[in-house]
């Protein structure tokens, strides 16, 4: 992973924490979780406060994610809202954190001037043992504390203010007045500064969970759809009267579900030709085949002529795989007719021709599923399914790793927003990737 670290393809865009007072606040938050304080003089954190360096120091990647449910967070500064989430068990952790930051911006801005917020995103379950546990998570509540007890002091000051207003003799109580002055020096004027977050409950929408090798849960008005390996505990047994279950290898049913719920953008010349997505995926397939047959080749040094020659020499391999000629034919069909009749396409190959509907709120989750079903496209896998990408990266040859890193830094990191807009039609930037 060293190459990924140096290229900022893993743990990139994190926030440096090195000021002694900030480290002290972080340590108080760790103590609040029952964890030992860090001895590091500097470390980096993501949106949730997770630090790769502290995880290494504690020997626990899940120190903010115990049991991989009820995710913990530590907020040192409002600037964390602009950071990615680099370690999580649920795909919508970043979205929930964004909602929390947006709904409580005033309180977060005020508190983090002198304190740090920490706590848990509490689900309805404490441990996940089967699919039913995941299905029971409908909403989450942020349980919020503060390292320096700023929230507690603000609450105490508010109660004293209320007493001053309602008890006629309170103005003569020097102890009360002195305590109010002492607290106000710490909290400021609580009539002007909202120190206590006021929105703590948020809906848990469609998500992917990394339990049992990965489970997708999609929510519609009257139905819930689960997509995962059929061997997952509870598959077709948890709430069968209200939940539809689809095996991850059942491409026909997955496609039918996504298409019927308007979660897919089907092939049309209007977006296929301008996006270049088909050619991108075709190139990814050929590069993967080269790596399989000649893993020691330096793919950064080869050009289009070399690739064309390789395809001629390995025509049988390319034909057996089938995806490259399929995509080339799809490009020609779209250019000639403007559309592709999906009923004529084998179910396993349909996902090569589609992308998530850009206007659908589940677009990131759907693109994640598509990238899992088109694994040769390591760029899309990196954008939407980093856990899957990192697992695949470990299996790549050393030379192919060099090519992968060079491709991602050259084609994607230079302008992620423009890249995602062109290939996937995504109109808004997000910290998800």
Task: Give an account of the 3D structure.
InterPro entries: DUF6638. The protein is of the alpha+beta class. It folds into 2 domains: 2-149 and 195-203, no CATH class; 249-424, no CATH class. Helices cover 46% and strands 11% of the residues. It has helices at residues 2-6, 20-32, 52-58, 93-103, 105-111, 131-135, 150-166, 174-187, 251-260, 269-275, 277-293, 304-313, 315-321, 323-337, 347-350, 363-373, 378-384, 386-393, 398-412, 416-424, and strands spanning 15-17, 43-45, 72-75, 117-122, 139-146, 201-203, 207-209, 215-219, 224-228, 243-247, 264-265, 355-356. It has a 4-stranded antiparallel sheet with strand order 3-4-5-6, with helices on both faces. Strands 7-8-9-10 form a 4-stranded mixed sheet. Strand 7 (207-209) and strand 8 form a beta hairpin. Helix 12 (304-313) packs across helix 13 (315-321).
In short:
By secondary structure, this protein is α+β, with helices and mostly antiparallel strands. The chain contains 20 helices and twelve strands. It is elongated and about 95 Å long.
């Amino acid at each position: 992973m060293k190459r990924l670290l140096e290229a900022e393809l893993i743990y990139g865009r994190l926030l440096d924490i090195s000021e002694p007072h900030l480290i002290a606040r972080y340590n108080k938050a760790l103590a609040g979780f029952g964890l030992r304080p860090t001895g590091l003089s500097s470390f980096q954190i993501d949106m949730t406060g997770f630090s790769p360096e502290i995880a290494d120091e504690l020997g626990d990647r899940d120190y903010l994610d115990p049991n991989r449910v009820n995710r913990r967070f530590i907020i040192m500064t409002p600037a964390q809202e602009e950071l990615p989430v680099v370690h999580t068990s649920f795909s919508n952790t970043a979205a929930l954190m964004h909602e929390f930051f947006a709904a409580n911006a005033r309180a977060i801005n005020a508190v983090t001037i002198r304190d740090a917020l920490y706590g848990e995103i509490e689900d309805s379950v404490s441990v996940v043992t089967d699919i039913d546990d995941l299905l029971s998570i409908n909403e989450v509540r942020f349980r919020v504390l503060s390292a320096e007890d700023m929230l507690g002091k603000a609450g105490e000051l508010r109660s004293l203010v209320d007493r001053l207003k309602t008890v006629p003799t309170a103005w003569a109580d020097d102890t009360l007045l002195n305590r109010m002055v002492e607290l106000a020096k710490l909290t400021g004027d609580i009539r002007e500064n909202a120190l206590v977050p006021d929105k703590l409950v948020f809906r848990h929408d469609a998500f992917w969970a990394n339990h049992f090798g990965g489970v997708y849960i999609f929510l519609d008005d009257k139905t819930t759809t689960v997509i995962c390996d059929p061997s997952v505990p509870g598959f077709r047994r948890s709430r069968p009267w209200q939940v539809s279950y689809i095996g991850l290898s059942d491409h026909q049913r997955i496609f039918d579900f996504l298409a019927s719920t308007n979660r897919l953008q089907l092939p049309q010349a209007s977006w296929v030709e301008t996006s270049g997505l088909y050619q991108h995926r075709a190139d990814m397939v050929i590069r993967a085949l080269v790596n399989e047959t000649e893993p020691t080749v330096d793919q950064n040094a080869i050009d289009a002529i070399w690739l064309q020659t390789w395809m001629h020499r390995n025509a049988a391999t390319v034909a057996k795989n089938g995806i490259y000629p399929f995509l080339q034919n799809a490009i020609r069909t779209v250019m000639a007719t403007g559309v592709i009749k999906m009923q004529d396409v084998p179910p396993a190959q349909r996902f090569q021709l589609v992308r998530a509907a850009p206007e659908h709120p589940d677009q990131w989750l759907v693109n994640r599923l598509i990238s899992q079903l088109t694994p040769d496209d390591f760029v899309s896998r990196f954008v939407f399914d980093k856990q899957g990408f990192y697992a695949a990266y470990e299996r790549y040859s050393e030379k192919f790793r060099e090519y992968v890193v060079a491709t991602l830094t050259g084609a994607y990191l230079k302008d992620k927003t423009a890249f995602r807009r062109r290939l996937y039609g995504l109109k808004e930037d997000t910290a998800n990737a």
